[in-house]
Amino acid sequence: MNAIRVLADTNVISYTMRGGRLAQLYEPHLKGRLVAISFITVGEFYYGAEKARWGNDKRLRLETTLKNFLVIPYDHEIAGTYGRIVAGSEKLGRPISLGDAWIAACAVRHGLPLVTHNAEHFKGVETLQVISESEAAEPHGPQSTS
């Protein structure tokens, strides 16, 4: 794994955009690194903007923010990895959402650790390194899970 590059899940980028305690929890995992996001994350942000009926100014801020990240596009190898992840998760009896499977496939394909607040969503995905502070966000949880 390349420690200076990470793939950030949609929720982590959302936290950093809003600021606050959750953004602070993830800052050490992102600061000074090349932060990539999946093409799925970009779509999820545009979906959120549509659903919330964002105006032009807010959409422009979103587009400006997204330009700060390396966006991992679809490719044939990611599609194959996606298929293995979904089938493997089903075989383990731990179905994974299609969006999470695409994000995991991008991370696995490029050998990047995934920084997410939803570590449970990715349990059982072989060769995926997950970095999460989800338990640290709980009042009585441990400091970090990786």
Summarize the amount of helix as a percent range.
40-55%
Q: At the third CATH level, what is the topology name?
A: Rossmann fold
Q: State the separation between the terminal residues, measured CA to CA.
A: 13 Å
Oligomer: single chain
Gyration radius (Cα, Å) is 15 Å
Q: What number of structural domains do the residues give?
A: 1
CATH class placement: Alpha Beta
CATH architecture label name: 3-Layer(aba) Sandwich
Annotation keywords:
146 residues; alpha/beta; Rossmann fold; 5-stranded parallel sheet; 5 strands; 52% helix; globular; disordered C terminus
What does this structure look like?
This protein has a single domain (5-137), classed as 5'-nuclease (Rossmann fold), CATH 3.40.50. Strands 3-2-1-4-5 form a five-stranded parallel sheet. 52% of the residues lie in helices and 11% in strands. With 146 residues, the protein is α/β, with parallel strands linked by helices. Helix 1 (10-18) packs across helix 2, helix 3 (39-51) packs antiparallel against helix 4 (56-66) and helix 5 packs across helix 6. It contains seven helices and five strands.
How does the SSE layout of this entry go?
Elements: E1 5-8, H1 10-18, H2 21-30, E2 34-38, H3 39-51, H4 56-66, E3 70-72, H5 76-91, H6 98-110, E4 114-115, E5 130-131, H7 134-137
Parallel strand pairs: 1-2, 1-4, 2-3, 4-5
Helix pairs in contact: 1-2, 3-4, 5-6
